[in-house]
Specification:
Elements (H helix, E strand, L loop, with lengths): L3 H12 L6 E4 L7 H6 L1 H29 L2 E6 L12 H20 L5 E8 L8 H5 L7 H14 L3 E4 L2 H11 L2 H4 L5
Helix pairs in contact: 1-3, 3-4
Length: 186
Amino acid sequence: MCDPDAIGRTAAHASAGGSIDVVLIAHGDLPVQAECETDLRRCRDALEVNGVSPALFAEAFAQHMANAGHGTLAVIGSVAGDRGRKSNYAYGAAKGLVNRYLQGMQHRFAGTAIKVVLVKPGPTDTPMTAQLKGQGAPLAPVEQVAACIVEGIAAGRPVVYAPAKWRAIMWVIRHLPGFVFNRLNI
């Protein structure tokens, strides 16, 4: 998933029929944090699949949109990228990479007809979060998250929290002082 040549060919093939209006880059893997701590290959894979790969796909499609002079590029990040937490910092760091990368792309395309949308879902009821569901974690219905994504892309919002409640939740988590945050078991 991180082969630059294969990613470039994929974007070129998708663009071959004409300009692209909307691209949604949505792939990832939720690793078990303890595995990433003890298996450096698993850690590398988590960082590549969740961070490097989406950034490379975004860059490949952005070039085609730049050539066409328009388009909307949307990439799934995560609320986990807003602040590193002991429960999932390998995944969170990768999504933090996506966050910063997309911010740079938003700056690159500011004032143009190209929109870059970063989607930050909270925990969502998908196969990727099956382990969380088995632990009783509250998960958002996929239909609710999808509706937020579609609405955010249509509006060309730079950042879409899905569901929207995560904007306020993550604002609080990002702004907690370290001495308070470090006492939390999250």
